[in-house]
């Protein structure tokens, strides 16, 4: 059954941030959340994680409302990778990944052999073996994001929520990171800005505008020139020349404003033109 949301909303200061959104990712698929800044993507992810309670509607895990489940029980199933992670404490990559076992351990408990195996497997999946003893503070942005995914994998979740994981990464690291997420045997919900990356790596898309879901389906169904113009206010050319016929989006420059016609009038009995 997995993770699902039914008509969920969240309001802050009298303003509706998420407005009646429903979703139910298929087991093992990658669902992309699209929409401009302020459309509610990050807030929706927090609702799905149980970090923020819904104002209305319900988020369920295997049919059970999150509010009826303990935080530890949810954390054992649902892992979250935020946009940015930082710490002032000196930690190695191994230390950071071990934090993912926190929901499975008793307070002040000693890590078990099962904990260490989960950590090592997470490091192997994210190809961080050579970085395990390296300081977190010496890593590049792309490497830090991989470490955060490894930490999430150490939780041994079935659902993975990622909030703009490719922000501030160069193209190579963006591609590597999303290819890694797409390969994972997990249900992933990932908020993205880049429409072409979403088309390339996501199985289904959900598009938000002003907190409401305005489109859902496969990348080929959702990414049209008309929808992109409506949601993002930009002109595009959408072709189907991507892998497996997936859409590819080419952005066009804005239409220049029409020049202001010269103004004519009479000054001191003479005709004049300005502009």
From TrEMBL:
This protein's species is Thermobifida alba
ABC transporter domain location: 3-235
Q: Name one Pfam family in it.
A: ABC_tran
| Pro residues biased stretches | 253-262
UniProt keywords, alphabetically: ATP-binding, Nucleotide-binding
Q: Which regions span the lipid bilayer?
A: none
Q: What is this protein called?
A: ABC transporter ATP-binding protein
In what ranges is there compositional bias, type Polar residues?
263-275
Lipid metabolism among keywords = no
Task: List every stretch annotated Disordered.
Answer: 243-275
MF terms (GO), sorted A to Z: ATP binding
Which PROSITE patterns does the record match to this protein?
Answer: ABC_TRANSPORTER_1 (PS00211), ABC_TRANSPORTER_2 (PS50893)
């Amino acid at each position: 059954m997995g993770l699902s949301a039914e008509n969920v909303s969240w309001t802050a200061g009298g303003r509706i941030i998420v407005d009646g959104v429903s979703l139910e990712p298929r087991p093992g698929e990658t669902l992309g959340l699209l929409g401009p800044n302020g459309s509610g993507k990050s807030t929706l992810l927090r609702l799905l994680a149980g970090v923020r309670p819904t104002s209305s509607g319900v988020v369920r895990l295997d049919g059970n409302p999150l509010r009826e489940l303990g935080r530890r029980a949810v954390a054992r199933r649902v892992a979250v990778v935020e946009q940015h992670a930082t710490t002032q404490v000196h930690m190695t990559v191994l230390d950071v990944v071990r934090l993912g076992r926190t929901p499975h351990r008793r307070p002040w408990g000693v890590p078990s052999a099962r904990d260490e195996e989960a950590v090592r497997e997470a490091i192997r999946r994210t190809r961080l073996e050579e970085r395990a003893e390296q300081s977190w503070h010496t890593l590049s942005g792309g490497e830090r994001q991989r470490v955060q995914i490894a930490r999430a994998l150490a939780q041994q979740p079935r659902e993975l929520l990622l909030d703009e994981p490719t922000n501030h990464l160069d193209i190579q690291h963006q591609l590597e990171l999303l290819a890694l997420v797409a390969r994972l045997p997990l249900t992933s919900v990932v908020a993205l800005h880049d429409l072409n990356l979403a088309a390339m790596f996501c199985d289904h898309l959900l598009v938000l505008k002003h907190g409401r879901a305005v489109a859902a389906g496969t990348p080929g169904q959702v990414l049209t020139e008309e929808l992109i113009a409506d949601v993002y206010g930009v002109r595009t050319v959408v072709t189907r020349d991507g892998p497996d016929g997936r859409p590819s989006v080419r952005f066009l420059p804005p239409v220049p404003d029409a020049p202001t016609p010269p103004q004519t009038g009479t000054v001191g009995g003479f005709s004049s033109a300005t502009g």
